[in-house]
User: Fold this.
Amino acid sequence: MTSSNPTTIKQFSQSPAWFSAINRIWQGTYAAGTRISLDKDGLIRAARKSTGLTDLGKDFMDEPLDRLLQAVNEEANLHPIGRFITGERFVSLLGIRLRAEYFFKKHPEILEQELCPAWIIVGLQRTGTTKLQRLLAVDPDHRVIPSWEVINPMPMNLDLYDLSPCHPITLSPDHHLQQPYPHPRDKRPSVASISVKALKLMSPGFFAIHPIDAMQPEEDILMLDVSFLSTTPEAMMHVPSYSSWLENTDQSPAYAYAAKLLKFLQWIKPAKRWILKTPHHLEFPGLIEKNFGEVHFVWPHRSLYESVPSFLSMVTCNRRIFSNEVDERQVAAHWVRKTGYMLEQALEYRLKDGNESRFTDIFYKDLLSDSVDALSLIYKQNGGMTPELAEKFRQHELEHPHRKNGMHHYALADFGLTEADIDQHTTRYQEIFNNHYGR
Assistant:
């Protein structure tokens, strides 16, 4: 919600007193050697030790992790808790890759699959993408990636899903696992629930911005993180050298590996259609088409004068979880330009001959006022929406009311911005979607 009060951002960017105290005390002990080291070899050793596995795969590349670690160590100004979280996350990502290679080698049939069709939500941040994905997840024909699974797409207990001849797990005639998923002894849901609770403690206001739920779907950009080629780091911390390098680097390896992870998830729990979403995909619709098979893009739209400051508020809140040195104006300078770049990349693909039909547009205000009517536009791709499914969507809306976690206040003025600053980087997009569609 926009506001004319230039101090509204502080409602969501303040760290709890206990959090600041721990950082201050911990940093005071650095002289005693308590500063966590973030170096590639140490992180890989830790991942190998935690998994008992050694093979990161023939397509693992050193440069993305090297570039990211250099930026994190030299530019991000992480406080002690930020360094701890970052180290744990990087070890986890390497562990995912190690476990993935274990399954790919043991069950080559995983990678022989074709991915099932997908609806890919590609709207900018804060345009209703989360609401849209969670609504579409209600359809029993759809496969989403809940937060617990996208954080850890590969099982931490390898034996639970091991199809060795002596193992009691059975396969259906079409070679899919026939057992409850997740397995009752699968650690991943509880690990995600603990992470959600920790986030609530570290950043109490964050859930009014983005309500995280361990069991609800989350962005599949985290599948790209496994290759250390994604915009997640620049949304979490100040890493300008990495961001610049990433924007000029081929992202094909990340999308190819994400497709391999999706094949594993599909192998272990199949469905008729994938529902995926992340704003990151706006930059790379061509790579999605190349690697994800039969896809249709769903593009939510919202006034940039609302969505951009809302996202800047979210980034500022994110970054304070990792650093005490967060400059709102630097956040704005980086992401306003980046927003324009993402939109231009998407438009370049969309405006090519034949690609317009690959897109369905959804408008934020329509999604809020009558979500079932908005969803019906998407279901035209699938023969229409049944009355039974429409009722499921309405019930979901009743159970998950908008802003149930509080009101999120934000304004362009919080970041020293005016509408003209947004217009400078987004002229073509606004001309197409404001003028052509009358929105």
Summary: The longest strand covers residues 295-301.
